[in-house]
Structures are given as C-alpha cells and as structure tokens.
Amino acid sequence: MRDGWVADFDALAPTYDQRTAQDDWRLNDRAAEMLAPLGLAPARILDLGAGTGQTAEALLRLFPDAEVTLVDPAPGMLRAARAKLPGATFVEEDAAAFLAASAGRWDLVSAIGCLELVPDLFEVLRLAAARLAPGGHLVASHEPLLGTGVQARPVSILDRGRAVSRHAVEEVERRAASYGLRRVASRVETAFQRGDGDGAAVYELVVWSAGGV
Ligand SMILES: C[S@@+](CC[C@H](N)C(=O)[O-])C[C@H]1O[C@@H](n2cnc3c(N)ncnc32)[C@H](O)[C@@H]1O
C-alpha cells in the first residue's frame, strides 16, 4: 500500500532521526518510562509504524532479551531501522493489513507516532488487542481531540494525500475497553511543535493490558 504518508516518510527517512532529535521527539522514552514500573518481561514485541527503529530501540533498552518484529509500509524507514537492529524481523506493510493476516501472538505491541496516520485507528487497536498473548500489553500514542486549535478538528487533510485523524480520549478508551483492553497507565505529552504557527502537537500515550490481567 502506497498512500501519501508512505511516500512522505520514504522521502523523510534519510533525515528522520536528525529531524526528530531537533524536534525533541521523546514519545519513545516516555512510553518506556510508563512501561518500566510494570515489571514486564516480554519475549515477543511487535512494533507497528516502526519507522527508523526508534521505538524498538527504546523498548530493547528496557527488554534486551526480547525478539522484535518491526512493521512499517515505508521501505526507506525500514531500511534505516535494519541498519540499527540487525537481529530484528522487518515487515513492509500497513499496520492493519499485517495484523489481519497474522496468526502471531505478542507479549507487547507498540504503536508510537503512527495511529493518527492510519486509515482507521480503531481497526488497528481491535486487531492488535486480538493478537496479544495472555497477559500481554499494548502501548500506543494517538492525537486526541482537544477543545481548541488544530486539534479541535477530527481530521486535518494535508497535501499529497495525507490526513491526520483525531479522536476523543473518552472514545478511544470506550472502544479499547470493548476490545478487551484494560488501561493501566496514560499520560498526555507535547510530541513536537507544528510548523506554520499551528502550535504544539499534543499526544496521549496509553498502556493497556489484555483482558483482566
Ligand atoms: C512519526 S513516524 C513514527 C516512527 C517511530 N515509531 C518513532 O517513534 O520514531 C510514523 C511512522 O508510521 C508509518 N506509517 C504510516 N502509515 C502507516 C500505516 N498505515 N501502518 C503502519 N505504519 C504507518 C510511517 O511510515 C512512519 O514510519
């Protein structure tokens, strides 16, 4: 699948790490901070919207013995990730398509910085919940609807076929609960400063556990 975001991130790939460092992109560190106190020991991690591997690197610092599978539809991003994580598995695929076709089970699924870009955030959450091992966890970020500014709009249609979708925190939680996910930690973070004077991009980070565990 090649949509606008795939072409966009493919072009960005060679400079993505440099740009995110300049933008102070710290969601992966924040996600690791939320996971650390939970005392998890995941053997198998699935990283959706893996990009250049920043999320996987942060998770592997916390869980060095885990096997990691990185999924991303942008080949350039995965190329950069491969160079950093030679022992990992890489799949060039849309998150929902990968999950729908997979029979795998993961102890930890991550989706950091990508759910506002996918065609249907809820479909990814639903499919990811179904692929968690018993006692497994899902850590994800999304761009919540806020009362003012750009984030008061459910969708921002950008150029070159790109769109950013937003959902109310309460709606995300209601839907996640309906997929059997139980919220164990959450925090709201400034992810980066948008260009064009549109202010801070505010994300919610959430850790859910599978079922009642
Ligand atoms: C902002 S980057 C985040 C990458 C990484 N998780 C990080 O924190 O650095 C968003 C990533 O989502 C990927 N992406 C875009 N559409 C996607 C989709 N439908 N399914 C999975 N990943 C997608 C992009 O290719 C890009 O690598």
Report on this structure.
This protein has helices at residues 4-22, 27-35, 54-62, 75-84, 95-101, 121-130, 169-178; strands at residues 44-48, 67-72, 89-92, 106-111, 132-142, 155-157, 163-165, 181-193, 200-210. The protein is built from 7 helices and 9 strands. With 213 residues, it is of the alpha/beta class. It has one domain (4-210): 3-Layer(aba) Sandwich (Rossmann fold), CATH 3.40.50.150. Strands 3-2-1-4-5-9-8 form a 7-stranded mixed sheet, with helices on both faces. Strands 6-7 form a two-stranded antiparallel sheet. Bound molecules: S-adenosylmethionine. S-adenosylmethionine binds at residues 5-6, 9, 27-28, 48-51, 54-55, 72-74, 77, 94-95, 112-114, 117-118.
Total number of strands: 9
- Would you tell me the overall average pLDDT? 95
Estimate the strand proportion. 25-35%
Number of domains: 1
CATH class placement: Alpha Beta
Work out the helicity level: 25-40%
Strand count, sense and barrel status of the largest sheet are: 7 strands, mixed
Structural class: alpha/beta
Q: Tell me the name of the CATH homologous superfamily.
A: Vaccinia Virus protein VP39
End-to-end C-alpha gap: 35 Å
Query: What is the CATH architecture term?
Result: 3-Layer(aba) Sandwich
Give me the CATH fold name.
Answer: Rossmann fold
Element-level helix/strand string:
HHEHEHEHEHEEEHEE
Small-molecule binders here are: S-adenosylmethionine
Our count of helices gives 7
Strand order of the largest sheet: 3-2-1-4-5-9-8
Gyration radius, in Å: 16 Å
Poorly predicted regions are none
GO molecular function: methyltransferase activity
Keywords: Methyltransferase, S-adenosyl-L-methionine, Transferase
Protein name: Class I SAM-dependent methyltransferase
GO biological process, one term: methylation
